[in-house]
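QA checklist item 7 of 12: single-chain prediction sanity check.
[x] sequence parsed
[x] length recorded as 412
[x] structure emitted
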Amino acid sequence: MRWWSVANFVSNAGTWMQLTVQNLLVLQITGSAAATGLSMSVQAAPALLISLLGGAAVDRFPRKLTAAVSQAALGAIAFVTATLVALDQLTMTSLMVLAAVTGVVATVDGPACALLGNDLVPPEDVPSAIGVGALVHNAGRLVGAALAGVTVGLLGTAAAYAANGLSFLFVTAVIPFLRPAPGAVRVVPVETERARRELTVRQGLSFFVRRPRLLALAAVTGVSAVFGRNYALTLAVLVTGPLAGGAGAFGTVSTVLAVGGIIGAVLGARLRRPSVRLVGTLAATGGLLQVAAGLSPSLAVLLVLVLPMAVVESVSDTAGTAVLQTDPPSHLRGRVLGVWGSVGTVWSLGGPPALGLLMELAGARGALIAGGLVIACTIATGRLVHSRRTLPAVVLRPEGHAPAPAALSTAA
């Protein structure tokens, strides 16, 4: 698990180097901000269309093999891009094609690497492993964004893509040496193995749809993703607009958000039994903090609120991921993650435009306040409806104290 965490840190740093540079590269090629957004959408679109197939591939083949092949493929794509940039042959068309291929490979790589990491620890430690993964992700994001500027300044744009390619190869080299923890991977009986092979993508989707706690988790995460969490957009407008701050002030807010994410990942790693109820409670708390942030009279007050907002969001994400990856049976987890990838892509593509429209109508403060209230009220309403649907238990009396016929009729 330590080797896997180091490998993922290196890979995340390389990925964020490339993501940071890619937007600048598109702007250099086209001079269009719309084209930048299009490149991001093209990379995300495959997850909407074929995540179910990617999840099925993860269930069908050994996870170590699947993860190693997908990491090597992502590395090859990064090296091809670096070569085209170095030779000044990269066009918008070729960049879009490479982005689309990256998105296709990612539909397999995401669930494969996530489930492979879970196999490295005992089952009771999976929530902690997911928390460690969140911590590694946030740390790699900070380091990668910082290294991107240095690398481009010293070696050029192609070097950032080449560095990302090397980071993928490092992960590929580590995977063959990973060993599952005792009890993490159980021998599958022949009958179960045959049933696993006969499972289809449709059956994975059917499991997700018929699982109330997964549907509740999807609803909580969806409303939070659409009406909150897009702080790079809402807080940027709030800081530079009503609070009259500059780019430096927003940089400070972004740093506090990153620090809060790391603290939340550390706290999330201590979770032993995460639940959908915990995820909903944390999401509602985050919504209320978002309302308070929208009412902030100054930058100092906003900074005080931003830290717990990031902490709550990070712990909620860790708890939700733990539920998602441990609730389904092991032979269906890849398919369930594939369903989740498709649903999450809908949120990521639809959330920012919806939030942008809300900001146009109500301003940055209004969007934060309205969005936070929608999150909190929706979750509270769902919890209330669920509690009313839960029937009280019927207590059976000891023998010799049978209820009267009328009381028995009422109980029945």
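[x] summary fact logged: The radius of gyration is 24 Å.
[ ] second reviewer sign-off
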